[in-house]
Every structure is written in structure tokens, then in C-alpha cells.
Amino acid sequence: MPTRTIRTVTEAEAARRVEEIIERRARCGDPDREKLCDEPVELVAYLVGHRRVPTEVLRCDALDALVLLEYARRAVPVLPGRLDRLEHRVLTLGIEAGLSLGELAAPLGLRSRQAVQHRLLRHAAAERGASRSEVAERAARRAETRERAWLDRHGSDLLSCAGRLLAHRDLLAGAAAAGDPAFGTSAEAVSEAAPGAEAASGAGAEIAEAFDELAESLSRVPADPRDPRHTARYVTRTRHLAARLRLLLADLAAAGAAAAVPAGHPVHALLARTARLAAAHQSAAAPPPPARSRPAGGQRQPVGTPGTALR
Fold this sequence. Notes:
Blueprint: H1 11-27, H2 40-49, H3 55-75, H4 82-96, H5 101-105, H6 113-128, H7 134-140, H8 144-166, H9 169-178, H10 187-191, H11 202-219, H12 231-255, H13 257-260, H14 266-285
């Protein structure tokens, strides 16, 4: 995978973009503007979630939001995965609003529309569970048969684990916040937190947001995958759900959330099972490795190791 280009954005430019977004939303009469804030990442999250404004406003917002995300990659501490999720949503918003790939390139510090296309393909690859590679994504789009077979056998288990995990949203968000100095550091802080309490800021709030995105993904999966009218939509949306699960699990691990939950709590077994299912789906959805060439001289290389059964 090529090294990612990160545009250098000064604090002054980021502040200017924030002001322009807020003023633009005020001028157009954004009905949700009371929820606006001036923190760059949260402002971008607001923009992709509140679209009841003219298309021209959305186009300007998308370009400014990409600049703010580039600033955040260097200057704002954010859990892994969140900026990539937001960037994918902003790029999609920009395209839906009528921006060309060439117009989207400049805010990202890219030189061509092809570079933006590759960025989109890498995001799509991550959503599918493949490596962040445009080549892998193109190959993955031709390899759905094995994934469908896996979903026929294990899809209901994956969806069940996602639903059960959502029931522990407040516990795990609080556990993530327990590792945040702004919240506290003890496991007791997690067990004694009031049910339904939200972490005020930091890792806990980001974990809570990731749970909200998972809930949205789960709600979009068709209820009856056996209905031929829903088969393609079921595969696509279950794939999206599995990608959300993997990102959430990575963020929980980065925040040390499981370590802050008391030993013996059933959420530990649930996290382990969910991780196994999500990883198995990722393997099933990934394209097969390229065929190995035969060595010179026509001799076949031995496969496997002595005493190892081949499958």
C-alpha cells in the first residue's frame, strides 16, 4: 500500500475553515445549527449527519471538511479508524452533491482525480474487510461467492453478536472513558457509573459514537436474507456491519475498554466471540491470494510442512 499523503494544514487555516462553515450554515438557515460546535472533528461529524441545506452549501462544506480532517490527522488525538470513516463519508457526500474527483483532490493534498479514486477504493476495501488497497478492492469485488456461502452459515450469529454487543454500549463507553484522564482511571468508575450515563468527552464519547454507527448499520440489514429480492442488499449491508464491528473492536482495544471491565463479566466472552466471527468474515470476504508460479526446471515446490495435514 502506498504511503498516505497528509496535507499540512496550519491551525490558522483550520480555524478559518471552521468559521466559514459556521457562518455558511447560519446564512442558509440550517435548521439543526444549534448543534454546531467549533471543534474540527466534531464539526465534520455534524456536517455529514445534518444535510438539510442547499446542495451548494453541501459542496462547500465537503471541501472544508476534508481540510479539517487533514488538520486533525496531525493535530487532534483521535482513536484509530474514526478519521478514515469520516473521510469516506465526506468524500461520498461531496460526490453526491456534484463535486468532481478533481475538485476533491486539492483539499486532500492530492494531485489527480485518480488519486482520489484510489483513496475511495481503499476506504471501500476497508469497509469490505480487505486490506486498504485499490488493487485488493477491485479483486474483492469479483470474489463474493465465498462470502455469500459464509454468510449463509454464520451471518445470523454475526448479527446476533452485534445486537448483544449494542446492549453493552454504555458499559464499554464508560470503560473506555475510565482510561481517559479526563474521566478517571479505576475499574470501579465503570461499575459504579449510572446506567445510561455517557462519557462526557474523549475516548468514551468516540466509542459511544462508534456504537451509534453500528446500531445504524444493524438496522439497515434486511430481516429476511432468504427473500431473493433482498439477497444482494443483505450481503452488502452485512458486509458494512462487519466492517463497523471490526473498527469498533479496534477502537475498544486501543482505548483499553475490556481491561477496565471487571473480570468475569459476560461481555468478555461476547467480545471474543464477536472478534472471531468478524475475523472469519473478513477472511471469507477477502479475495484469494495470487496463484504461486512454478519454480524454474518444472519442479513443484513442497507445500506445507512435514506432519501438517493440508485442507
